[in-house]
């Protein structure tokens, strides 16, 4: 007992020391905040951030630079429209942006001297931006990813935050949650979860938390980020259900089994089923909102109803906004094929595999429920079979 207490005290001391070192390395306020991305969520999150920067002059500089992938909208540059009319008429029409958001199409200028970097571009556009950001950001900058996506290479899963970490050589946290952007832009209440080192998460909470946008913090940033990426696959399944005309019970089954497979997939990486993280906004709550109100759901419903491919559906329905679930579904299927070389990924992830077959291999949408009872076996011995197969 005494030994355990001593170990705990030592553990606490080591953690405090690590936090002190982390604090010493942090940039000093007032912090300059830059947002990399200006889409539907980029602009909405930008409103929350800009309001905090205006209200907390001791912590943050008032001006928030937002990098915009420049394009012409009705004969005018989007940056010019945003800086004059204070509205992103293409990606968040009808919503006024605070005047302290400054749209900037030159990436080097947008992140020059930035102490806090907020990444919110669709994940397929991220990597090429990083060398310029590295050259221009502040030396001790901290970063956070709001991007819901995933990659894969010969060594397995590559998180978006891993890509940023590697590209910039700095620590990266993640903010994920039940955050359909249009609802937050309308002023509805929402919650989010930040995963990251404690010191960073505290500062980042100051950046995002608002009276109607409640942010909690946890340490396990990988699990938070994976929840945000993987729920988009399940949302495709929910959309298939809607396209087939199934009711709420069927969709609830997809959501429940999807939650289980999200947990299992995180377990593949960490060895632990992340029950507590799944109970955060980034877990069950994001899954529910996306399966009812998200773009992935909407496009998957149209996929069942018509004969168009994903690119055509995205162009038809999203007005330039980007679908992330199909890319994530393809990447995750590659991870599963590599993790289960005997071809038995189906035994552990029947729903993810069915969704991939429907989305990319011409399987009938009605097969969405095939073999899902396999997931019940996993519940009989939670954690054990999968963790063993990974050793
Ligand atoms: N919209 C939402 O409700 C939410 C979105 N997210 C995530 O946020 C991330 C960003 O999504 P949104 O802000 O919604 O974007 P979006 O899908 O509304 O807009 C697309 C963005 O991509 C930019 N873009 C187009 N071509 C580009 C290129 N070649 N290079 C660089 N940028 C290019 C456009 O300028 C635009 O800003 C995604 O990972 C998404 O999953 C997360 C939570 C909520
Ligand atoms: O992530 C989202 C809500 O939290 C939005 O999901 P969609 O990209 O499917 O719209």
Please give the structural blueprint:
Layout: H1 2-25, E1 31-36, H2 40-55, E2 60-67, E3 72-73, E4 76-77, H3 78-85, E5 101-104, H4 107-110, E6 116-119, H5 130-136, E7 142-145, E8 150-153, E9 156-159, H6 160-168, E10 172-176, H7 181-185, E11 190-195, H8 198-208, E12 213-218, H9 221-243, H10 248-270, H11 275-278, H12 281-293, H13 295-305, H14 310-318, H15 325-339, H16 345-348, H17 350-360, H18 374-380, H19 384-389
Parallel strand pairs: 1-2, 1-6, 2-5, 6-7, 7-10, 11-12
Antiparallel strand pairs: 3-4, 8-9, 10-11
Helix pairs in contact: 9-10, 9-12, 9-13, 9-15, 9-17, 10-12, 12-13, 13-14, 15-17
The protein binds 1,4-dihydronicotinamide adenine dinucleotide and 1,3-dihydroxyacetonephosphate.
The site of 1,4-dihydronicotinamide adenine dinucleotide (NAI) has 23 residues, from helix 2.
If you had to describe this structure to a student in words, what would you say it looks like?
- This protein has 391 residues and is α/β, with parallel strands linked by helices.
- It folds into two domains: 21-219, 3-Layer(aba) Sandwich (Rossmann fold), CATH 3.40.50.720; 229-389, Orthogonal Bundle (N-(1-d-carboxylethyl)-l-norvaline Dehydrogenase, domain 2), CATH 1.10.1040.
- It is 54% helix and 14% strand.
- It has 19 helices and twelve strands.
- The chain has helices at residues 2-25, 40-55, 78-85, 107-110, 130-136, 160-168, 181-185, 198-208, 221-243, 248-270, 275-278, 281-293, 295-305, 310-318, 325-339, 345-348, 350-360, 374-380, 384-389; strands spanning 31-36, 60-67, 72-73, 76-77, 101-104, 116-119, 142-145, 150-153, 156-159, 172-176, 190-195, 213-218.
- The chain has an eight-stranded mixed sheet, with helices on both faces. A two-stranded antiparallel ribbon has the order 3-4.
- Helix 9 (221-243) packs across helix 15 (325-339).
- The longest helix has 24 residues, at 2-25.
- The radius of gyration is 21 Å and the shape is globular.
- The two termini are 32 Å apart.
- 1,3-dihydroxyacetonephosphate binds at residues 148, 178-180, 232, 235, 286, 289-290, 294-296, 324.
- Residues 148, 178-180, 232, 235, 286, 289-290, 294-296, 324 line the site of 1,3-dihydroxyacetonephosphate.
């Amino acid at each position: 007992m005494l030994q355990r207490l001593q170990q705990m005290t030592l553990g606490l001391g080591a953690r405090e020391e690590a936090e002190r070192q982390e604090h010493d390395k942090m940039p000093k306020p007032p912090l300059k905040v830059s947002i990399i991305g200006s889409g539907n969520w980029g602009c909405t999150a930008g409103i929350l951030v800009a309001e905090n920067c205006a209200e907390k002059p001791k912590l943050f500089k008032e001006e928030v630079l937002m990098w915009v992938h420049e394009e012409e909208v009705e004969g005018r540059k989007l940056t010019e429209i945003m800086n004059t009319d204070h509205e992103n008429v293409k990606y968040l029409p009808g919503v006024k942006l605070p005047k302290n958001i400054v749209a900037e199409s030159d990436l080097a200028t947008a992140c020059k001297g930035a102490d806090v970097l907020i990444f919110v571009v669709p994940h397929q556009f991220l990597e090429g931006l990083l060398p310029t950001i590295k050259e221009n950001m502040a030396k001790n900058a901290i970063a956070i990813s709001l991007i819901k996506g995933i990659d894969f290479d010969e060594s397995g899963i590559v998180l978006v935050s891993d890509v940023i970490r590697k590209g910039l050589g700095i620590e990266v946290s993640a903010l994920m949650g039940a955050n359909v952007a249009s609802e937050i832009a309308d002023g509805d209440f929402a919650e989010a979860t930040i995963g990251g080192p404690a010191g960073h998460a505290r500062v980042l909470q100051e950046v995002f938390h608002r009276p109607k946008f409640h942010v909690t913090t946890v340490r396990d940033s990988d699990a938070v980020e994976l929840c945000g990426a993987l729920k988009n696959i399940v949302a495709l399944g929910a959309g298939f259900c809607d396209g087939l005309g199934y009711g709420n019970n069927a969709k609830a089954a997809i959501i429940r089994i999807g939650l289980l497979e999200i947990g299992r997939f995180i377990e593949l990486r960490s060895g632990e089923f992340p029950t507590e993280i799944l109970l955060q906004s980034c877990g069950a709550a994001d899954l529910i909102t996306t399966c009812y109100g998200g773009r992935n759901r909407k496009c998957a419903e149209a996929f069942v109803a018509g004969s168009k491919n994903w690119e055509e559906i995205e162009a038809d329905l999203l007005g330039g906004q980007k679908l992330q679930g199909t890319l994530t579904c393809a990447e995750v299927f590659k991870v599963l094929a590599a993790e289960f070389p005997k071809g038995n990924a189906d035994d552990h992830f029947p729903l993810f595999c069915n969704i991939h077959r429907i989305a990319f291999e011409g399987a009938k949408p009605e097969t969405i429920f095939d073999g899902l009872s396999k997931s019940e076996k996993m519940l009989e011995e939670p954690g054990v079979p999968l963790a063993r197969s990974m050793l």
